[in-house]
Amino acid sequence: MGITINDYAIINVYNPPRNIMTILDMGFLSRFRRILLFGDFNSHHTMWGGRSINPSGGSLLSLIETNDYVMLNTSFPTHFTLVGPYVWNILDLTILDCGGIF
Fold first, then answer.
1. What distance in Å separates the CA atoms of residue 49 and residue 46, rounded to the nearest whole number?
2. Which of 4, 30, 42, 79 is the most exposed place for a label (fewest CB within 10 A)?
3. pLDDT value, residue 56
4. pLDDT 10s digits, 17-68
């Protein structure tokens, strides 16, 4: 779900836990000059403080690196598993593409 205002796109993402997100799934982002992308990606990766790496996490990291996006998260956990084993993780992410404004 998202909105565009002039050349800005603000997009909320929900990637279901068992869905493997690929870089092709996010190809539509190339239409926008500036992007604020946030939501529950269910993408695990140690680069943003996750405890493991899953395929969606690898795809998301590739998207970030390929496009010089900026991850605004700290390593503060955003999700607590309520079914054992009880662990914290970072699944809710905020990503910014400044479009060369910085």
1. 5
2. 30
3. 92
4. 888 988 777 777 877 878 899 888 888 889 888 888 999 999 999 988 988 8
Domains annotated for the chain, with CATH where assigned, are: 2-97 (3.60.10.10)
Q: How far apart are CA 54 and CA 22, in angstroms?
A: 11
Residue bearing the bigger pLDDT, 84 or 6: 6
**Rounded to the nearest 10 degrees, how much is the dihedral formed by the CA atoms of 49, 54, 56, 61?**
40
Q: Tell me the whole-structure pTM to 2 decimals.
A: 0.78
Question: How many Cα atoms within 13 Å fall on the side-chain side of residue 6?
Answer: 1
Token pair of 64, please? 């970030």
Nearest to residue 23, comparing CAs of 70, 69, 57? 57
CB 31 within 8 Å of CB 97: no
